[in-house]
Amino acid sequence: MDTDYIIVGGGIVGLSVAWGLLRRGLTVTVLDGDDGSFRASRGNFGLVWVQSKGMKQPRYAEWSQHSAAIWAAFADELGNNTGQTVPLEQKGGYDLHFSEETLEATVAQYEVLKGKLGGNYPYEVLGHNALRKEEPNIGPTVVGAILHHQDGHANPLKLLTALAADVRRLGGRVLTGKTVTEVTKPDAFRVTCADGTAVTSGKVVLSAGLGATQLGPSMGFKAPIRPQRGQVLITEKLPKLINRPSLIARQVDEGGIQIGATNEEVGLDDRVTQPGLSGLAAEAIAAYPALARAQLVRSWGALRVLSPDGLPIYQQSAEMPGAYLVTCHSGITLAAAHARVLPDWLEGTSAAPNLEVFSEDRFAVS
Amino acid sequence: MKTVSPFLELEDAPRVEVSFDGRTLSLPTGANLAASMLAAGIDVFRNTPVSGAPRAPFCMMGACFECLVDIDGITRQACMVEVTEGMLITPPHSAEVRHEPS
Amino acid sequence: MSRRDLVIIGAGPAGMAAAAQAADLGLSVTVLDEQPHAGGQIYRDVDRIAPIRGGILGPDFTHGTTLTAAMRHDAIVHLTGAVVWAIEDQFRISYTRGGRGAQIEADRILLATGALERPMPLPGWTLPGVMTAGAGQILLKQSGILARNAVLVGSGPLLYLIAAQMVRAGTPPVAMVETQSRGDVMRAAPHMGGALRGWRYLAKGLKMLAEITRARVPRYTDATGIAIEGDGKAEAVRFTSKGRSHRIACDTVFLHHGVVPNTQAARSLEVSHRWDAAQHCFVPLADEWGQTDKDGLFIAGDGAGIGGAKAAECAGKLAALEVAHQAGRLPLAERDRFAAAPRAKLESELAARPFLDAAYPPCAEALLPDDKTLICRCEEVTAGDIRGYAKLGCIGPNQTKAFGRAGMGPCQGRYCGLSVTVLLADATGQTADETGYYRIRPPIKPVTLGELAAMDDNTLDAAE
Ligand SMILES: Cc1cc2nc3c(=O)[nH]c(=O)nc-3n(C[C@H](O)[C@H](O)[C@H](O)COP(=O)(O)OP(=O)(O)OC[C@H]3O[C@@H](n4cnc5c(N)ncnc54)[C@H](O)[C@@H]3O)c2cc1C
Ligand SMILES: Cc1cc2nc3c(=O)[nH]c(=O)nc-3n(C[C@H](O)[C@H](O)[C@H](O)COP(=O)(O)OP(=O)(O)OC[C@H]3O[C@@H](n4cnc5c(N)ncnc54)[C@H](O)[C@@H]3O)c2cc1C
Ligand code: FES
């Protein structure tokens, strides 16, 4: 056997898991696709986010909270190891509202969730004036916001870079430009790539983002995931304009204002469209009118990796024991949990988290 | 102090006043803004938002974005703009117009 | 929103010639160019400038007035100062003009967006006072502004042209620091046959050299170890030539080592490109009429591969003929009959290229700069950073972009893209084609959020 684990897919999810396994002294080989692959890890919004997660499944809310709580230590460790800080700010985040009705309805839902979480859901409602004190540039049509204190944001690209560097430093073997075409288990696992490379291992983690739809079924997974396009905008670098992030806009550590994101069911099309860009720009200006003068310098479309209920999937294959499907929509938020907690589940230690509700059993066979 | 420009102007056209970073410049009306700022002795247009390094026009054809300045509050490429009377020009996103004697 | 038979982006020789040809054949044509006047790079603002500085700039410049004259045609709308920032499928073009966003639809599109100067990352190239030689020429051409103390650095015919124009204007450069060597010229010799067919160019080249020599401009060839020095602005150029090191004081440095296609618009439409080894750059794939692998999308002029102004004019005409044919306005036989003359001219124009490409190769140390040299001016990323990302497994420019931000700034990779491809290919052992290029997306030129938002359907509805 070449290695303890093969990780198929070197995005945020695969690298977080690889890093966690390496830290436990296991040997890991990561196989990642080519320069043009769909990579949500490169196109996301960078929120380390808790509010609104798991409204129907409190365990997901808890899992997100857990990850958010250990994110800073995770980022510090990566920063110390690589000498490159992973910018993270956890001063809370907003859900901005343009109408009293939506604000009240959301608060009602949060109250229910808060009850199920035993009260651990620290949020407050800010009316327009209170919000303006926090965010002097907020627009007049924003009636208020929910400020959730467990929310924050990170630089997801620096996270990706730091993980790529530290996985190597920890002795991980990372092969890029390798598209896995087949996974078999004659005895040990044998993973074969399009260019003929073959690697054998004791266990396999399938964390190939949307690539799991092709490989998953051959490994005994349902892998019922689909792409959902999000268009994202970023402006020129600006002086401080926004203090805390929201789902509408955030100011990144380099200074640009990131604005997102559309939710579009358009298959594997990751292009941007003028109507998409215009709609996002209009919403951002409604929230922060000063943005009307800002120059848009870049935009992109990225494909979310979505399960039918939007929750992560953590599943061991019944057909191929030792093969695991690990995929989620909120890979930035969950990076810390994937790096520091998920390895216990993969290794079956006594500290393994209970991830029952995230198994594929929840999806009916169609 | 009058700055000696490293550039020589062949043409003479009617001039108008504009302000750059608190200084008053007299530039040929209708001329290319970046070119006439250079001729007026402006050697640094901005400092980068990354390291603060000084920058000035590089391509003069709208491709490099080194000539960025704020004109009446909007960041524009000076090499793509014509001089008009009374333009209020600053380096990009300078919080306020600074008045420097030099 | 209006719909036109043909929308042309770029009013240089390719775009202007195409517009006139298409309009003559009865097509409705709109030309969009971000410049305030027709002309493109070579004939910039030619109508106003030809009478003032035609003498300095020469007949190759004043020739442009024939093209601008032919643009004044009832079927042609020329929108000046129109910055195109998005082109979407079949075909919706978004642009900004006078601070407002607008759109136009087209059955067919011709991209005639021309060339950019090849990025020339050398130590100190970001200092104020360092410009491209083309920029120096634009200052002279458009504004009548001349650098008093300029050193020209690099190689290629345009470098001599600009030097000669500076001489004619009475402000010769302080020195020419040339990176090509005798060996390059020897290697180019086998291509002489082709060049002789383009003899006019060579004769012109010799004439320019004579002008430069007569003005006693010192020329240093085979220059290596080039660095621009200065505290906050360019003060001198340091280099070694023929075993001796030099330091030449100056206020201005003009860099040039060739021009390369401006592929931003074509890339944003996912046109396939291939690496052109002779010209050291990517060129879009297009057939003999300039039709790309995207239906209805044409490219002509230097944006399709460097051929120069006269070639651009011919290619523009050819594209217009095929557009008219596809639009059902020109039978096949007629198309071919009309095409014969511009095609023959195009071939003779292109004949000199292999010689020029071989005689004036790009400056080697600017293709693979040392680790400390900045290659991404906007985000201040060095060549060493890119090599480091290659060690982290980055095999393509989109990965280095995510890791290190090269290509993320306002120029959108125009002045670092080729450097990143070449550096990565060198580090990984892949070819440039395998390495690839940035994924270019709208906006291909920045646009304010306010302009974008004003085009939002919901906002528009609400306003009505
Ligand atoms: C617009 C948008 C905004 C988002 N915002 C946030 C946010 O604010 N906060 C948050 O937490 N999350 C956010 N996300 C989600 C987050 O980005 C994803 O959950 C996360 O990036 C998924 O990572 P991944 O590694 O699973 O997938 P990817 O990044 O897609 O990586 C998959 C990798 O697998 C490789 N691969 C695929 N197939 C194969 C194969 N056959 N062989 C080998 N390799 C293969 C690919 O090359 C790729 O590198 C957002 C996503 C989008 C699209
Ligand atoms: C700075 C420079 C100087 C040059 N000088 C000479 C010279 O003196 N002699 C010579 O023989 N050759 C010169 N060249 C080479 C030149 O490329 C060709 O001679 C010729 O101009 C090519 O013609 P074209 O029609 O392909 O493109 P161009 O003449 O380059 O025209 C392209 C036009 O497209 C417009 N454009 C590009 N993108 C957009 C957009 N997004 N929105 C709106 N408009 C856009 C530009 O404003 C430009 O006017 C020069 C090149 C450069 C870059
Ligand atoms: S000088 Fe390059 S964009 Fe203006």
From TrEMBL, chain A:
Q: Which domain of life is it from?
A: Bacteria
* Transmembrane spans: 6-22
Give a Pfam family name: DAO
Domain called FAD dependent oxidoreductase: residue spans: 4-342
- The reply to whether Oxidoreductase figures as a keyword in the UniProt entry is yes
The residues the entry assigns to the signal sequence are none
Q: Name one GO molecular function term.
A: oxidoreductase activity
The protein here is known as Glycine/D-amino acid oxidase-like deaminating enzyme
Which intervals of the chain form a coiled coil? none
Instruction: Name the GO cellular-component terms.
Output: cytoplasm
Keyword check for Membrane, yes or no: yes
Q: Which InterPro entries match?
A: FAD-dep_OxRdtase, FAD/NAD-bd_sf
Return the PANTHER family for the record.
SARCOSINE DEHYDROGENASE-RELATED
| UniProtKB keywords | Membrane, Oxidoreductase, Transmembrane, Transmembrane helix
TrEMBL record, chain B:
At the top level, the lineage of the source is: Bacteria
Q: Name one Pfam family in it.
A: Fer2_4
- Note the InterPro entries from the entry: 2Fe-2S-bd_N, 2Fe-2S_ferredoxin-like_sf
Q: Which UniProt keywords apply?
A: Oxidoreductase
One Gene Ontology MF term: oxidoreductase activity
- Please identify the protein, giving its name as recorded: 2Fe-2S iron-sulfur cluster protein
Source organism per entry reads: Litoreibacter meonggei
From TrEMBL, chain C:
Q: Which InterPro entries match?
A: BFD-like_2Fe2S-bd_dom_sf, FAD/NAD-bd_sf, FAD/NAD-binding_dom, Metab_Enz_Cyan_OpOx_G3PDH, Opine_Oxase_asu/HCN_bsu, SoxA_A3
Question: What are the recorded GO MF terms, alphabetically?
Answer: oxidoreductase activity
**Pfam families linked:** Pyr_redox_2, SO_alpha_A3
Domain spans labelled FAD/NAD(P)-binding: 5-316
Query: Which residues constitute the signal peptide according to the record?
Result: 1-22
What range(s) does the SoxA A3 domain occupy? 372-454
Q: Which UniProt keywords apply?
A: Oxidoreductase, Signal
The name on file for this protein is Thioredoxin reductase
Look up and give the organism this protein is from. Litoreibacter meonggei
